[in-house]
């Protein structure tokens, strides 16, 4: 297997508050990794460190064999290889659906308008939003916004897709439509790193599950292992709590 | 009677009033545009995230300090005094007399820029942080993020304040008469100096000022409404066709 991203001794502090401690982990090409853990355990911060929306306080992020935390590394160049889907969608309010999926391609990847439109339409079809290309974000429901956000990220044809609780801000009846698309994507061999509270979904799509607790990776392994027979007591505790409330 | 006087004043002096009003508009508009550009630039620079270290960090600090001095200085001194300082100062420093109209535009532009810088900064801060992050996440740099995502939203946010600034400028250009700019107030003074009917002459000026500001208010309101955009959109293709009241009526009619 080919490692795409490898994280070594990563740490992150906000002031004196140490949010991530000595994180080691890697993502292989084509792998679907889900990160679970209670709220405040540092899942979002880890994901945001991976694409440098947060600057790590220490450690290394090795991408294709290079440490991208090196000063001379171009972080914009690196970020375009990673797609990010946010909990709050963050569609560009000033662009319609089609342009949301085109502007990055044209301005960052320097694709021609025609090519960008063709690619944008292709991925909008994948998420079932090709009929809404003229709509502005404010016209869409939460589920529709998140589907467009996924298409926007896919349109950049990234090496890895990062998802930060993509269904947590959705009304319950819209969670399914987004998870369905993510399952389909997982089936295409796309490399995905997903923070989620949807345990059923995590069990179903993951090649590997990472359980985080208080800023460290407490345990990781295949979903059968983590969900049925975890090594750690705190993993068991978390699952018991979470599965009960669902 | 005053009204007769006013009519007579307009009849015999309308070209002067018109020229004055014209210059007032030109100076206010150009000044507002220049000021908005200064404000946008200053606002963008002042919101650049600080680099960690190195020359860039110190350079940015220096530029920010200069911008802060500029903003505070021009907001903290009367425009009428600024006009005198710039007009006579340039004569002293470069030994040449600026065209008063150019000097007027410069004064209004720089002054407006100081106010707009703050307005733009507020407008940038009020754009949701998620917009910025999403643009960064697809690989845009700071300038691209600003041009393609943040600024269009900022401009929409600050449009009312900019229009307001334009209206303020129409009124405030009156102070430029101290450096002999032939705007409306200056022309009115000339007219009144000839006929000694101060009240009537300035009342005419008053009405002209009001017509200008009110017309602009109406125009701006129209544009703001237009910028809001349509409240609906078309769903393309018929597999996901959203039924409108019209469609349902049609169907009902067919059924009958
Ligand atoms: N920008 C920030 N400034 C200060 N503290 C933060 C910031 N972002 C996150 N934190 C803190 O870091 C911890 C982990 O947060 P987060 O990564 O969002 O957790 P999770 O996504 O697992 O719920 C929390 O205690 C949170 O308060
Ligand atoms: Mg989170």
UniProtKB/TrEMBL annotation, chain A:
> Which Gene Ontology cellular-component terms appear in the entry?
plasma membrane
User: What keywords is this UniProt entry annotated with?
Assistant: Amino-acid transport, ATP-binding, Cell membrane, Membrane, Nucleotide-binding, Transport
Q: Which Pfam families match?
A: ABC_tran (PF00005)
The membrane-topology field of this record reads: Peripheral membrane protein
Lineage, uppermost ranks: Bacteria, Bacillati, Bacillota, Bacilli, Bacillales
Q: Which residues form the ABC transporter domain?
A: 5-239
Q: Does the keyword Cell membrane apply?
A: yes
In terms of PANTHER family, this protein maps to: AMINO ACID IMPORT ATP-BINDING PROTEIN (PTHR43166), GLUTAMATE_ASPARTATE IMPORT ATP-BINDING PROTEIN GLTL (PTHR43166:SF9)
Q: Which family does it belong to?
A: Belongs to the ABC transporter superfamily.
Q: Which InterPro entries match?
A: AAA+_ATPase (IPR003593), ABC_ATPase_HisP-typ (IPR030679), ABC_transporter-like_ATP-bd (IPR003439), ABC_transporter-like_CS (IPR017871), MetN_ABC_transporter-like (IPR050086), P-loop_NTPase (IPR027417)
UniProt GO molecular function: ABC-type amino acid transporter activity; ATP binding; ATP hydrolysis activity
Q: What is this protein called?
A: Amino acid ABC transporter ATP-binding protein
């Amino acid at each position: 297997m080919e490692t795409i991203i490898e994280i070594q001794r990563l740490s992150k502090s906000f002031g004196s508050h140490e949010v991530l401690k000595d994180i080691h982990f890697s993502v292989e090409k084509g792998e679907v990794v889900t990160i679970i853990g209670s709220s405040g355990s540092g899942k979002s911060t880890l994901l945001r460190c991976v694409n440098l929306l947060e600057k790590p306080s220490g450690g290394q992020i090795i991408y294709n064999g290079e440490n991208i935390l090196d000063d001379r590394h171009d972080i914009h160049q690196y970020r375009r290889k990673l797609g990010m889907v946010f909990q709050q969608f963050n569609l560009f309010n000033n662009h319609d659906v089609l342009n949301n999926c085109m502007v990055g391609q044209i301005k960052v990847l320097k694709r021609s308008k025609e090519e960008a439109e063709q690619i944008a339409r292709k991925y909008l079809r994948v998420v079932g939003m090709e009929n809404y290309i003229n709509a502005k974000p404010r016209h869409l429901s939460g589920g529709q916004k998140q589907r467009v956000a996924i298409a926007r990220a896919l349109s950049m044809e990234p090496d890895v897709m990062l998802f930060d609780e993509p269904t947590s801000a959705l009304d319950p009846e819209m969670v399914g439509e987004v998870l369905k698309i993510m399952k389909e994507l997982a089936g295409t061999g796309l490399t995905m790193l997903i923070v989620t509270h949807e345990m059923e979904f995590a069990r179903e799509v993951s090649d590997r599950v990472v359980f985080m607790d208080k800023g460290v990776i407490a345990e990781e392994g295949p979903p059968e292992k983590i969900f049925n027979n975890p090594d750690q007591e705190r993993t068991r505790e978390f699952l018991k709590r979470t599965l009960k409330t669902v | 009677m005053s009204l007769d006087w006013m009519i007579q004043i307009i009849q015999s002096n309308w070209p002067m009033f018109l020229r004055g009003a014209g210059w007032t508009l030109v100076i206010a508009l150009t000044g507002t545009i220049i000021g908005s550009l200064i404000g946008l630039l200053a606002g963008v620079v002042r919101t650049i995230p600080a680099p960690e270290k190195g020359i860039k960090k110190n350079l940015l600090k220096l530029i920010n300090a200069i911008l802060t001095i500029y903003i505070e200085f021009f907001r903290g001194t009367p425009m009428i005094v600024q006009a005198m300082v710039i007009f006579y100062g340039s004569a002293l420093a470069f030994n040449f007399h600026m065209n008063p109209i150019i000097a007027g535009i410069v004064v209004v532009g720089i002054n407006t820029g100081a106010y707009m810088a703050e307005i733009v900064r507020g407008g940038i801060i009020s754009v949701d942080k998620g917009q910025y992050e999403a643009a960064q996440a697809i690989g845009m740099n700071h300038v691209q993020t600003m041009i393609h995502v943040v600024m269009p939203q900022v401009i929409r946010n600050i449009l009312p304040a900019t229009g307001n600034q334009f209206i303020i400028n129409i009124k405030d250009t009156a102070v430029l008469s101290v450096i002999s700019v032939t705007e409306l107030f200056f022309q009115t003074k000339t007219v009144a100096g000839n006929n000694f009917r101060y009240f009537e002459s300035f009342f005419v000026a008053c009405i002209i000022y009001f017509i200008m500001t009110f017309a602009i208010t109406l125009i701006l309101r129209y544009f703001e409404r237009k910028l809001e955009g349509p409240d609906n959109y078309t769903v393309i293709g018929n597999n996901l066709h959203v039924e409108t009241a019209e469609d349902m009526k049609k169907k009902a009619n067919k059924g009958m």
